[in-house]
Amino acid sequence: YEIPLRLVGSEMCIRDREPATAAPAEKEEKMSWMTDFKAAKALAEKEKKDLLISFSGSDWCGWCIKLDKEVMEQPEFLEWAKKNVVLLKLDFPRNIPQSGALKQQNETLAQYYGVQGFPTVILARPDGQVIARTGYQHGGAAAYVKHLGELLKQK
Question: Do the strands 130-134 and 4-7 form a parallel or antiparallel pair, or are they unpaired?
Fold first, then answer.
C-alpha cells in the first residue's frame, strides 16, 4: 500500500520498512540509468557532471510511476540529463527481482541520504555530497527541468 504525503510542493509515498523479496536477477532499465553508485560517481567525476539520484518504488509507488512517465521518460528531460547529470536509479521494488548486493547498496544509500519517502530525487556532486533534494513536481518535463536547473544553481 502507499500513503500519499505532501511536502513542500512535492508528492511522495511514505517508505515502508518491509524488505523486498529476494530474487536472483536484476531488471534491465528502460532508460540510460545507472544502478551502481560507485560507477556512477566515477563517471560523474570523469565527465565533470553532477549526479541525479532517484530513489524510487518503481512498481508500487504511484508518485514514482507518475514521475517516471511524466518526466523521466520524456525526451526533454533525457536531453537535459545527457548534458548535465549522470542518472542513478536506486529502486526499492516489491515485485521486480534484484540481487542481494543491489538491495544492500540501495538500502545503505537510502539510510545515508535520510530517504523517508518515494520518490526522492537528490542532486549531488560527483563525490556524492548533496546539492539539493526534491521529489515529484506537477507540470511535466519542461517544468521539472527548469526546477532542477534552479536547484543546481545552489552549488
Answer: unpaired
